[in-house]
């Protein structure tokens, strides 16, 4: 993947430390990675990401963080 990818992480991830999820747009898709393992990249579509975010917003994944 190109070095020109602009990764973004949540402002809730705790500063500049490792162990945060980063996301980027690339070639019409969405990329996700863990900052401490930057070579492991998951690629998904905008549609799939939107469905996931909707699930997060309504609490479908709250049990994973408790």
Assembly status: single chain
Number of strands: 4
Overall mean pLDDT stands at: 90
Amino- and carboxy-terminal Cα gap: 34 Å
| Proportion of residues in extended strands | 25-35%
The spatial strand order of the largest sheet comes to 1-2-3-4
Q: What is the number of helical segments per DSSP (H or I, 4+ residues)? A: 1
Query: What letter string, H or E per element, gives the SSE order?
Result: EEEEH
Overall, the morphology is globular
Helix content: 10-25%
Task: State the secondary-structure class.
Answer: alpha+beta
Q: Which blocks of ≥5 consecutive residues have pLDDT under 50?
A: none
What does the radius of gyration come to? Answer: 13 Å
What does it look like?
The model has no long low-confidence stretch (mean pLDDT 90). Strands 1-2-3-4 form a four-stranded antiparallel β-sheet. It has one helix at 46-57; strands at 8-9, 21-26, 29-34, 37-44. It has 66 residues and is α+β, with helices and mostly antiparallel strands.
Label this structure with key terms.
single chain, 66 residues, alpha+beta, globular
Short summary:
This protein is an alpha+beta fold and 66 residues long. It is 18% helix and 33% strand.
